[in-house]
Amino acid sequence: MASISSLGIGSGLDLNGLLDQLYAAERSKLEPIGQQIETQQVKISAYGELKGALSAFQDATQALNETTLYQSLSTSISGDAVQAAANGEASPGRYDISVDTLATAGSIATQRVDSLDTVLTEDDSELNLTFANADLNQRVAIEAGSTLQDVRDAINADPEAAVNASVINDGSGYRLALMSKQTGSDATLLDTDFAEMASDATLTDVTIEQAGQNAAFTVNGISVESASNQVDDAIQGVALDLQSTGQSSLLVEQDTQPAREGIDNFISAYNELKSTAGRLTAFNGADGQAGELIGDSAVRTIESRLRSDLGNGLVGEEGHQRLDEIGIALAVDGRLELDEQKLDAALAENPEAVGAFFSGADEANGLAGRLDATLSQLLDEEGALESAVAGAENRIESLGDRYVRMEQRIDTSIAHYQTQFSQLDAMMAQMNQTSAYLTQQLGMLDAQMGGGGMSGQ
């Protein structure tokens, strides 16, 4: 409100102060609306907190809906001959592995060249790489004027060349060494046809330094041969990495730890959701403080639907049908309580049955699938939570419009008061002037009358 500095000067009244008091009194009518807007904003923030807890519970629920969680296997190895990792297709058991030979790559080296500057080719030519496995054969283009290093670079630049080339100084000169990228006997490099490529006889002498060989090992006495030291098909579901010749024993066991951790996370996430809802709907009688969502219907809907899903059994499913059968119970306060010994026993005895209870025959039939569907509905744009948020936002918008309209009415009223006060000030100023004039005239008249009496004596 813009004050009028001259208001009250004519009348001598504190009209500005009175106008300020009227303005403050009118503005106080806006406070309830502002408080209502703030209440709705606090509710929206509380809904956001509840949504975060719901989303965290859904993440934990979806993790339990993965069948692989209950099929985890662990491996332990004695001996240094192999390393191993098992997946869900492996069968628990003990495997004795004896590695006789490791798979190696084939390699050859050329005759010695005295200088790295020696030009090997005067014309464009090709280098023919020939392998025991003809599918690996490749012809590499060599440019005219190439040195030993240029040939090396041309071979390494060809993506189809199944060798890695390098230049080696043997102390008396330089040789071009080629090693197969693959291991195994099929990767043996038989010839390089350097004679056809070179312009003279400098590279005609090629020595096979090492023939490629397959790995040879036994698994529980059964002979196995592999072109690679990484073997994925010798033991179903087990990836072997042959490290050295020697003996190793591999033990594959059921690992219930991932499932146990997933169930622990599930219980913790639900109890955190329950705590969040309880705090937002609580009433503290000692200080009269109420939770932001006390009495809120959306919270009641969420709690009711989740409690129903957790409490109802899996009709028609074999094996476990209720949470309490695996050591998880709904307490009186609505939280989940865990009997660790009972859950550990259920997982140790039959982890697949626990998995079937949570994940079911497909993603929708187990408890986790049922909960996930409910949570998706609750978190959907048209679900209970988003509907409550939309309702609060609509109320804020409506209250905001009401606030603006009332502000406009207040400004109109204050402007009317200013006009009236200005008129009052002008009228009072005129009355004061008239009063002063009359007082002056009466004073002069009294003086004249008094003076005339004395002269008459």
UniProtKB/TrEMBL annotation:
Pfam family, one: Flagellin_IN
Coiled-coil segments: none
Residues in Flagellar hook-associated protein 2 N-terminal domain copies: 11-105
Subcellular location: Secreted; Bacterial flagellum
Alphabetic keyword roster: Bacterial flagellum, Cell projection, Cilium, Coiled coil, Flagellum, Secreted
Family matches, as InterPro entries: Flagellin_hook_IN_motif (IPR010810), FliD (IPR040026), FliD_C (IPR010809), FliD_N (IPR003481)
Residues in Flagellar hook-associated protein 2 C-terminal domain copies: 212-433
Subunit structure comment from the entry: Homopentamer.
Physiological role: Required for morphogenesis and for the elongation of the flagellar filament by facilitating polymerization of the flagellin monomers at the tip of growing filament. Forms a capping structure, which prevents flagellin subunits (transported through the central channel of the flagellum) from leaking out without polymerization at the distal end.
Stated family: Belongs to the FliD family.
Protein name: Flagellar hook-associated protein 2
Species this chain originates from: Billgrantia desiderata
